[in-house]
Structure formats: C-alpha cells, structure tokens
Design brief:
This protein is of the alpha+beta class and 149 residues long. The protein contains seven helices and four strands; from the N terminus they run ααααβααβββα. Helix content is 41%, strand content 12%. The protein starts with a helix and ends in a 6-residue tail after the last helix.
C-alpha cells in the first residue's frame, strides 16, 4: 500500500495524524524523513510538527527499518517481576546493549509500559507480544526470529 493510500483513509484533520503515522509505520516498519514530509504535506503541517508528534511516542520508530525490534517493558510492575533480567538476556543473546546502533538489523529498547501489567514482564518482538516472559524463555523466543543460536 502506498503512503497516499494510507493517508486517503483519513480526513486531513490533526486528530487523525497519529492514526496515519501508526498505519505508515505498520506498512513501512518506520516513519522516515520521506514519509514525514508526505504526511506533513497531506495534513498541511510543517514536517517538524509531524516529526515532533511521531517522536513523542516510544512505540513509533522514526529511524531506519530494523529486521528485529525487541522491546521489553521496564515499568515498575514488570521490574518487580524481573524484566531487568529479561533485558539482560536479550542483550546477551544479541551481544549488544539497549540503544546500541552498530547492528543495523537489531534494535533493543526499553518500553515504559505496554498496559498489560498483570501479564508482565512483557516483551514485544516485531509487534508480536509475549507475556510473562522469564529470562529462561528469552532464547527460545528470539531463536524464532533469527539464525543465531
């Protein structure tokens, strides 16, 4: 689907901006500079305003497209259920830390909250949510996304 097709689903009102940004990310994997400019033009906004709206939300990827994006909740409830250890296991699996950018294929992020606190710790891999993740489950989950073992 083209960005024009995505945008045409919405009236060009600012209240639809976030919906359009999320749809663009779902289709393209991220919202890059080219998409920001096209979205801004459609909504009659400055690109900086669209970028500001997109970058405000942790769940919007405003950078390049990664093959594997791993997000682990580090909200208070998940931390009490060992999400810090889950993050450490993800880092060990990929050999990189949260926020490292040297591997263009993998991005590891901490997420402030997914809103499923009773099911925590929560880990999301490429938009697939895993609940009640333990450090022992990390390798099995991530092995399904990569050839690393």
């Amino acid at each position: 689907m083209t960005i024009q097709n995505i945008l045409m689903k919405y009236e060009a009102n600012q209240e639809n901006l976030l919906k359009a940004i999320k749809d663009a990310q779902r289709e393209y994997g991220c919202v890059d500079k080219v998409l920001v400019k096209q979205i801004a033009k459609y909504f009659s906004m400055k690109p900086a305003a669209v970028f500001s709206a997109a970058s405000f939300y942790d769940q919007i990827n405003i950078g390049g497209k990664f093959s594997i994006v791993v997000k682990v909740c580090d909200g208070a409830n998940c931390v009490t259920k060992n999400s810090t250890k889950v993050i450490e296991e993800v880092e060990r699996f990929f050999g990189q830390k949260v926020g490292d950018t040297f591997n263009a294929n993998v991005k590891i992020e901490r997420e402030s909250c997914f809103g499923f606190c009773a099911q925590g710790p929560i880990m999301v891999v490429n938009d697939v949510m895993y609940e009640k993740v333990t450090p022992e489950k990390v390798d099995d989950i991530l092995s399904g996304y990569t050839d690393f073992q």
